Each structure stands twice: as C-alpha cells, then as structure tokens.
Amino acid sequence: xxxxxxxxxxxxxxxxxxxxxxxxxxxxxxxxxxxxxxxxxxxxxxxxxxxxxxxxxxxxxxxxxxxxxxxxxxxxxxxxxxxxxxxxxxxxxxxxxxxxxxxxxxxxxxxxxxxxxxxxxxxxxxxxxxxxxxxxxxxxxxxxxxxxxxxxxxxxxxxxxxxxxxxxxxxxxxxxxxxxxxxxxxxxxxxxxx
Length: 194
Description:
Layout: H1 2-29, H2 33-47, H3 50-61, H4 65-92, H5 95-102, H6 108-143, H7 155-162, H8 171-191
Helix pairs in contact: 1-2, 1-4, 1-6, 2-4, 3-4, 4-6, 6-7, 6-8, 7-8
C-alpha cells in the first residue's frame, strides 16, 4: 500500500513540480506575449478540477497508481507554474542576477547557475506542503474507485469498502485513515523548511 502511495507521489512530483518549474521559469524569462500565454495556460490548469482530470485519465489509460499520479501531477502543473514564475521573477530582480546578466550570462547558464539553485529550497518546502495533499487526494481517488485495481488493498479503497461497518467495527476505518494522516504529516514535516 505504501509503495503505491510512493509511486503516486513520485508521479505528482515529477510531473507537477518539474513541469511547473520549467514552465514557470520560462514564463519569467519570456516577459513578452509568450510568458503571458504560459501564465494564462497555467491559470486554465487551475480551473479544471482534479477529479475531472482523474476521470479522464482513468477512462483513457485505465485504473492504476501511475495513472492516478499522472492525473494529480497534471492538475498540479498550473499551481507549480505560477509559484515558480513568482519565485523566478523575484530572483531575476535580485542584484546578483542582474550583475550576472550584465556580465553576459544568459539563457541556460543563468537558469542553472543562479535561478534554480536559489529556487530549490523554496520549491522543496512547497513540495512537502503539497505531498500531504497528494496523499489525501490519491486516497480520495481510491475511495471513488479511481486509484488502483479494486481487488488490491489501498487505503482509500479500504475506507470505501469498510464505510458500511463504521458503527459496528469503527476500527476498520480508523486504521487506514490514521495511516493516511500519518504519511501526510510525516511528508509535511520531512520537507518543512523551518
């Protein structure tokens, strides 16, 4: 069960964070109509509900943790893009970046030497804050039947399966719910910047 959650978190982090960072930094560097277009596309990703993306992905690619993780990651591209755009814009205004630009550093050199290393701590803290949300979102998708094969154990699927026994055997729902909460809290604490 935890391995499936790790697969989902890996997909969410890879697609959402890496894709969002690339698009966000590109939008910050391209201050013309192309940067505006990237930001507007990111805002459109925010408007589409995660459940709609997950339903579409499940219909196209079937029920498995990778599909659920990809759906959650695609839904996360918009917020990560806008977050990375704001960070990159702030860093582009810093004196050390302006000095590097004055010395002729541009493009990939500027991004790899000055922008990304200074964005990384804040991005990882943001990932930690969103990792707990990804765990609960995957549990919600599994609860709805969009996580993995229903014959395989999954925390969200267990909550769905045992919901009818809540008054007779409440511990059947407590343990999967507690596991979800512990994993979410642990991820938040692990990536916390403070």
